[in-house]
Amino acid sequence: MTGSVWWSIVSLVFILCTAPVWSVSVMSVDLGTEWMKVAIVSPGVPMEIALNKESKRKTPVAIAFRDGERTFGEDALTVGVRFPKLCYTHFLELLGKKIDHPLVQVFKKRFPYYDIVASPDRGTVVFQHDSETQFTPEELLAMLLQKAREFAQNSAIEKINDAVIIVPGYFNQAERRAVLQAAELSGLKVLQLMNDYTAVALNYGIFRRKDFNETAQYVMFYDMGASSTTATVVSFQLVKTKEKGVVESNPQLSVIGVGYDRTLGGLEKQMRLRDHLGKKFNEMKKTPNDVFQNPRAMAKLFKEAGRVKNVLSANVDHFAQIEGLLDDKDFKVQVTREEFEKMCEDLFERVKAPIDQALKTSGLSMDLISQVILVGAGTRVPKVQEKLTEKVAMELSKNLNTDEAAVMGAVYRAADLSNGFKVKKFLTKDAVLFPIQVIFDREADGGVKQVKRMLFGQMNPYPQKKILTFNKYQTDFTFHVNYAELDYLNPSEIQSVGQLNLSQVDLSGVAEAHELHKGAANAESKGIKAHFTLDESGVLALSSVELVIEKTLSDEEAAGEESPFSKLGSTISKLFSGPEDALKNNLDEKPVKEEPETGKAGESGEKKDQSEGEEVKQSSEEQQAKEKPTEEQKKNATGKDGEKKKPKVVTVKEAIKFSEKLIGINPLAEKEMQESLKKITSLDEHDARKRAREGAMNALESAVIDAKVKLEEDAYNQAATQQESEAILALCAKIFDWLDEEGYSAEAADFESRLAELKQLTAPVWRRVKEHEERPDALVGLESTLSHSNNFLATIKNMTANQTEADETPIFTAVEISLLQKTISDTQEWKSKMIEEQSKLKSSDNPKLTIASIVEKINNVEREVKYLVNKIKIWRPKKKESPKDTKNTTSSTDQKAKKDGSGKDKSKEEEKVIEPSEEVNEEEESPNAAESGQGTKTKAQQPEPEAQEPIAEAEVPEVAEPVVEPSKTDEEKTRHTEL
User: Fold this and answer.
1) To pair with 320 at 20 to 30 A between CA atoms, which of 223, 252, 480, 495?
2) How many CA atoms lie within 13 A of 949 on its CB side?
3) What class is the 435-559 domain?
4) Distances from the Cα of 377 to the Cαs of 227, 326, 381, 824, in angstroms?
5) Domain 26-264+352-429 part of CATH 3.30.420.40
6) CATH code of the region 266-350
7) What is the pLDDT of residues 919-954, one digit of tens each?
């Protein structure tokens, strides 16, 4: 390879690897059952909650569709009180579930007014909105994420595409994939799906990073939300990491124990209180109708039950009251905290169970936990706190914002994962909640034996990669990926997990891959290796399958193994590592190294079971240590004169084709994704047209009202002629009539065309009024400019006269002084003339003395003054020299030059040399002088600076700023014409 080609490739690599990364804002979304919170990080705005349109920090998870209008949040809940079926809430729990799932049945029982059907292709939940419209939970979630991004972009004042989305830690593979597809439909790029308890722990840790050391500190976070309860044990400690060859200590949180109850939360308490209020109303016999048979009445009771539940957290009793609950009958009843606790007694008994489960999975006892921190609105209930205190036997910590802790921790993680921000490192290690195993069949003892191999065990940290090796297969085969035994969960939780079988993988081309190396004496098979990845979002993926062959090379083969071109390609490929490799480096991920299996054909069945499908994990440091030979090994490997004693062994990998079929819930197919995207896009376009129409209508109505009000004022009435006033009022009346008759069905373009017509009529009148109101101030500014300019003119005249008497070269020429004097005089004459002409006009006549003309005159005078002021700043005085002095100076200069050339008397010359003052080489020309034809100043007319001792600058006369500020157009004109 030639040197030029080499340097061209190196230059290209350097340019691509050092390309600048532009800062962009990122966001996080906390998807709760009832509420949604959004946080942003943008340049100059670190970690801030994005407010919704009502300027609130959290938004109800609700979407309503009525009369072709789509509403979100509080507006949607308002629709839901009157039309419960048209407002969708609490749908997050329906993601990734089939119609017969136990939680779907609970949802249908709680909200019977929804028409829920099964998807014909996937068997998942679908809301039947009307005879023609259906909505899937993924579509509803996508719309909600779009609204979250709108809140974030309004706060950041720029576009946002990247987000970290918070999900419950107990979400399985199907549920996580459903969230990712919903984000794809919304147009968001998901940096990570983050478990809620991990986000809370990160928020706790980033503000206490100085409190951690090498000794692990154990903290429990107890989170009771609307639908579920979670207890999490987290360890915090400093760990040493090596990045770019530098070892540094960074704090790290590790999730080591999790316990949860998927159906214990505030929603169940609210449902029980709703039913209690419904029974009380029926007992009053105010109407023969049953309140439980009326969806609208039940929606009102549900809303009031939520309010009363919150009030009872701080009060011992409260009145529930609803106007016109059913058949125009009002309802009011007193509810005590004691009654509420009694109806939820069994729920409070379940409060302790997640703590026991978390401690069991972590292997710790309660005395090792330093503190228990409450998170979630459900922990505000006094009875819940009482039960927790009994269990943990310590004071409960309430030092986190229960509503915003998770979303603030997630947005910190988003900033860390993005390319636009640099944050202090805080490592996170999440844990596998549901263990995953691989099951395959193997022939043994004349039969088929099912073999199970654990892939990711319970509480294994992730993100992580694993490699599973199959040693015995010579032909195509199949294996299954399933959840492992979930005995640590209670039976109801196992049912909530859903389908335990995850996928079936079929391998093909195995025999052909073996055939390529069959019969080779120097080749040995190391098995078929399947590469699995559990990424940072907790989503399992099979990335590749390959047959690994080790080949022993002869000396000749080893010498020609790698050419310079292949070495260069290898170097460049390392520089351009893929996103997966970059992500692994960012997350301190430990790569997996496969270890050769020891099972042979002649070994016992037990030994074969242990070898078949075994996976081994090693850190990169250990791998490098194994691969790096010691000095003794080097010595043994080489003989006399550096000859190699052992042949070189290389690894050859043959890709194996595989097909993976998901079992249970399939993701949305491409066709379904396109249909959902089309549906959401249509709704977005409708909302955009609605906003444009409403904005145009409001602008037109405001302009009509403003015109009628202004014409009643004296200033505007006098500035308009009779014909103009009549035309404007007639058009206003015509527009009002049109708004009443056709305005409600008109499009935005119709409103805009009428607004333009009205503005065309009113613009001349409004302009005259503005001229009359602003003219006095403009004239004051012009008078002030002329006054200060006259003072400046008198000063420079005196200065020039004094310099002439002192036999010095004057600063200003006679042309410059006369030009300024003429400009001032002409402006004064123009002012007097225009004021006289303007005074003869009526208020309804178009003005002759305009603001623009006054500002132009001010700028003309100021340019002349600024030119002379700048000349003073750069001028250095010098005395006039006689011809004799000039001759002596020339002779002295020649003599110096001769001495310089000979190198003599150099030190003496340096004492005589004087640094010249700043020279001005550019021509200075007055713009007005050139325009008026009064000549251009040449270099002969400019004061030539001379090499002499610098003296104090001449005093610059002060020139006051004008009172009137020039318009933007005039400022730009001044900027381009000034010297």
Assistant:
1) 223
2) 4
3) mainly beta
4) 11, 31, 8, 75
5) yes
6) 3.90.640.10
7) 333 334 444 433 334 443 433 334 444 333 333 333
